[in-house]
Amino acid sequence: MVRDDFEARLVFLNARLREDEKAALALKPGKNTEVEGLRARALADVKMKRRLLEWVREPQEKVGDWGDTFWGDVAARAITQQWMRARQPVFEEIFQAYADHPDFAPGWKLAVVEEEPDTRARAHMV
After folding, report:
1. Please, what is the Cα angle at 92 between 12 and 123, to 5 degrees?
2. Could you tell me which of 126, 108, 110 has the C-alpha nearest to residue 11?
3. What is a single Pfam family found in this protein's UniProt entry (predicted)?
4. Can you list the positions of beta strands (E) in the chain?
5. What number of H helices and E strands is found in the chain?
6. What is the per-residue pLDDT across 67-125, written as a single tens digit (0 to 9) for each?
7. pLDDT for 72-83, tens place per residue?
């Protein structure tokens, strides 16, 4: 995935999480315990998604700038790409939940490609 595209998608996702949080905080439970429970779950969901996004971005922050050498930069990029490849599905699951939002770019939608029977379906950018 292109880094600029990832950053744009991350900005979009963070805006949706702020909207979700604002909507949950707007719920006024009063005497209705079901609304109170819904509000608590929605806020916990936003918090969990933010923590998962931190985890997805963690490799970039941990590797950081290995600095001054060509090979240090090559190694840092290779490690970050490997970690990101393993964490990308988590990001996609959170991100694709907002595919019906009007600001969701058409190029961000995933196409599900069926594999042979008994294997999991894979998602690909279209």
Report:
1. 130
2. 108
3. DUF6221
4. 110-113, 122-125
5. 3, 2
6. 567 767 777 777 777 777 778 888 889 999 999 999 999 888 875 545 555 555 555 55
7. 777 777 777 777
Match 């699951």 to its residue by tokens. Answer: 93
pTM of the model: 0.70
Ramachandran region, residue 54 (left: φ > 0; alpha: ψ -120 to 50; beta: rest): alpha
Please count the CA atoms within 13 angstroms of the CA of 60 that sit on its side-chain side: 12
Owning domain of residue 94: 3-125
Cα separation of 12 and 18, whole Å?
10
Cα angle for residues 28, 50, 4 (degrees, 5° grid): 130
Helix (H) or strand (E) holding 47: helix 33-63
**What's the domain count of the chain?**
1
Rounded CA Rg of the chain: 18
